[in-house]
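Hi V.,

Quick status before I head out on leave. The structure for the redesign project is tokenized and pasted below; the design run finished overnight.
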């Protein structure tokens, strides 16, 4: 398993960036060279804050991060940090006479929203505002357009910053910018500067997610350096012609940051979380350390050395800030360990002996193994003929695995076609940010044509009448035409050549695919194989007749999972894989022509929440169907048919793994809980994980076995797993 590694390069550069910010506020080289100091603090160090912003964007703005909770958590966290920083810096505000300023309230609001209550704090409101704006832009416009919008904002900012001199001759523009400056002292704020860096961070995250990023350090570092030199030239020119009102924003800063970040992504390794906290604390407290160094210099009589020599001054402030931050972060970690209760991480079930899990795993849950899912995609693709694409069928919440978790994961590794059952499932996928084709395999009410068009969904034409009605709505719609070759469910009759041909020349509905469905592809019985071959034959004959009429045959498909397993020689444009994608057979009794190394994605788990001893002869549960024939130990597990664990598995028809041992479920399964006889397991404890589907130690229960016991198929079992279960993804 390739566990993804942490971004060590980014962690380390955060610290460097924090010390660059310290440099901005202490001007280390002034004693020696004004120009040198300008280059360091007004140009080079300007990469620091954009870097922080990009890092946040990288972890927040990705197209695949459609969990709104992430934005809310980020905003909350930054607001808390901002609040604490304001309080921490209050003594300096007092010292500077901040509270004595004129128009206190409007100025305070302005500072709180844009400029920060102390000079360096502007970064915090900027990241709150910029993060929210970037998030919204990406949500509403998509990554590309969001980037353009953010660049436009940045350009507006440029002319209020480094390029102010350019517009100084223009009274109208100057007045406009003066209005702006009434509200915010600078344009390097959350509206003009921050969004573009957030979006760029997100773009890089997407590239990574789509594996477009290759770990090339050299070229990116070189490109970054070239852009850095260009930025240097740009800044020196602007400085020379005295065009700068402020010096935070340059044109070449954008490509320079993009390449720098790419280069840093190359360094992967262990996670150094402390560096993040340390750099943040350095950032927040260094102004206090500046005052501290000055005070100390005065008290010790070392003013000349500690303050007047700019380099030593810088080093003193930097070292003091660093020492303080290290001690602070270390002490905070110690406190947290001592004071706060320790939660067992949700996925480390093996460690959860006496714990009850946390959050998502404290009752019953579905665990999905994304590594297995990715493996299955690879295996299926390898089994498909050249040029055939995988259509991931994620209807019914991805067969209970979580439509978002499944679709986002496979979309990331290049799957570009999805099958759903309903229009609402399709719309949900689009809202999750899924790109590519989404085919609705079932019926769509023609009245919803507008939504089909708006969300770029592909409809299935299930009959001639349906096609005509859909066309009459007047929206440009993509569709695949379904042909009934013998299943007699959806589709035009395979011999309705005339009407099918007509559907190809509709005005608004564009037929981009034609497909059929095999109804006994899962069987290797001779008569069933003959029937499937007949269906296949009917389909191809129809295609031949359409071709004779001069119709260009669009994308074709007919295999679902069993179609691929048992008829791998067919060569279509898509395979619509559902159950195989999830690594399960419909029934454990099935055998298939092709044997693929698919791995089960889903596990169904719960926990022991109560243990009781019962005497021989006592019963358990509704109907008193289970009567103990010995003194027994019974574990109560909070999962039931309300969670999709079938009630007809009652009466000893199912078992569960606890501590790696298989034990029977006894009595009737209730809506919300069931009982397990754990007499034969030595040591069961509250909080122990109970695995109903999946592996525990050496033992494994396959979904297909459970489905067989319940006299159903895996597809039904999984898709019925209730909404009450949370899906926990193992990355
Ligand atoms: C659900 C469905 C599939 C996927 O079937 P599996 O057997 O799970 O692979 C394929 N095609 C159509 C039309 C479907 O409705």
């Amino acid at each position: 398993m390739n566990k993804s590694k942490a971004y060590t390069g980014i962690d380390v550069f955060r610290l460097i960036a924090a010390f660059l910010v310290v440099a901005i506020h202490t001007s280390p080289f002034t004693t020696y060279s004004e120009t040198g100091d300008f280059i360091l603090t007004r140009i080079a160090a300007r990469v620091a804050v954009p870097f922080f912003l990009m890092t946040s964007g990288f972890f927040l703005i990705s197209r695949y991060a459609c969990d709104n909770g992430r934005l809310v958590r980020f905003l909350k966290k930054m607001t808390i940090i901002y609040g604490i920083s304001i309080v921490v810096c209050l003594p300096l505000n007092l010292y500077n006479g901040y509270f004595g300023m004129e128009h206190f309230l409007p100025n305070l609001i302005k500072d709180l929203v844009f400029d920060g209550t102390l000079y360096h704090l502007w970064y915090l409101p900027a990241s709150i505002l910029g993060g929210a704006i970037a998030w919204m832009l990406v949500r509403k416009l998509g990554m590309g357009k969001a980037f353009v919008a953010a660049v436009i904002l940045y350009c507006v900012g440029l002319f209020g910053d480094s390029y102010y001199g350019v517009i100084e001759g223009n009274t109208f523009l100057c007045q406009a910018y003066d209005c702006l400056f009434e509200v915010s002292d600078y344009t390097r704020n959350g509206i003009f500067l921050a969004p573009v860096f957030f979006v760029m961070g997100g773009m890089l995250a997407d590239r990574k997610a789509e594996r477009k990023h290759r770990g090339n350090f050299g070229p990116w570092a070189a490109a970054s350096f070239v852009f850095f030199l260009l930025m240097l030239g740009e800044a020196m020119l602007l400085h020379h012609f005295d065009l700068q009102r402020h010096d935070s924003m340059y044109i070449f800063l954008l490509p320079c940051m993009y390449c720098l970040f790419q280069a840093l992504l190359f360094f992967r390794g262990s996670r150094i979380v402390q560096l993040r906290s340390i750099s943040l604390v350095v950032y927040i407290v260094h102004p206090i350390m500046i005052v501290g160094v000055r005070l100390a210099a005065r008290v010790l009589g070392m003013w000349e050395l500690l303050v007047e020599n700019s380099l030593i001054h810088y080093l003193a402030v930097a070292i003091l800030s660093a020492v303080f931050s290290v001690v602070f972060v270390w002490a905070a970690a110690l406190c947290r360990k001592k004071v706060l209760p320790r939660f067992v991480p949700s996925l480390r079930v093996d460690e959860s002996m006496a714990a009850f899990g946390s959050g998502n795993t404290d009752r019953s849950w579905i665990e999905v193994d994304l590594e297995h899912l990715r493996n299955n995609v690879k295996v299926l693709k390898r089994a498909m003929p050249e040029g055939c694409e995988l259509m991931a069928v994620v209807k019914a919440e991805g067969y209970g695995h979580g439509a978002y978790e499944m679709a986002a994961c496979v979309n990331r590794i290049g799957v570009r076609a999805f099958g759903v059952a309903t229009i609402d499932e399709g719309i949900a996928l689009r809202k999750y940010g899924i790109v590519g084709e989404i085919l609705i395999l079932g019926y769509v009410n023609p009245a919803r044509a507008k939504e089909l068009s708006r969300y770029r969904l592909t409809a299935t034409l299930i009959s001639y009448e349906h096609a005509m009605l859909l066309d009459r709505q007047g929206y440009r719609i993509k569709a695949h035409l379904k042909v009934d070759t013998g299943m007699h469910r959806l589709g035009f009759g395979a011999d309705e050549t005339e009407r099918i041909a007509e559907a190809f020349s509709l005005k608004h509905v564009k037929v981009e695919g034609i497909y059929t469905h095999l109804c006994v592809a899962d069987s290797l019985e001779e008569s069933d194989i003959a029937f499937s071959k007949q269906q296949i034959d009917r389909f191809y004959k129809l295609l031949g007749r359409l071709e004779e009429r001069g119709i260009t045959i669009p994308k074709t498909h007919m295999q679902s999972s069993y179609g691929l397993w048992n008829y791998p020689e067919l060569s279509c444009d898509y395979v619509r894989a559902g159950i195989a994608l999830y690594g399960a057979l419909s029934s454990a009794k099935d055998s298939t022509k092709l044997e693929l190394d698919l791995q089960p994605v889903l596990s169904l788990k719960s926990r022991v929440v109560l243990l009781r001893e019962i005497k021989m002869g006592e019963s358990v549960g509704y109907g008193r169907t289970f009567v103990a024939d010995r003194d027994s130990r019974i574990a109560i597990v909070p999962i039931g048919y309300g969670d999709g664990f079938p009630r007809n598995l009652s009466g000893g028809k199912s078992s569960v793994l606890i501590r790696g041992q298989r034990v029977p479920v006894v009595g009737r399964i209730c809506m919300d809980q069931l009982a397990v006889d754990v007499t034969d397991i030595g040591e069961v404890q509250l909080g122990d994980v109970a695995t109903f589907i999946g592996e525990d130690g050496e033992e494994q229960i396959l979904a297909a076995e459970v489905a067989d016991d319940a006299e159903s198929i895996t597809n039904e079992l999984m898709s019925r797993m209730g909404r009450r279960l949370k899906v926990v993804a193992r990355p």
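Above is the designed sequence. The longest helix spans residues 123-158.

G. will cover questions while I'm gone.

Best,
W.
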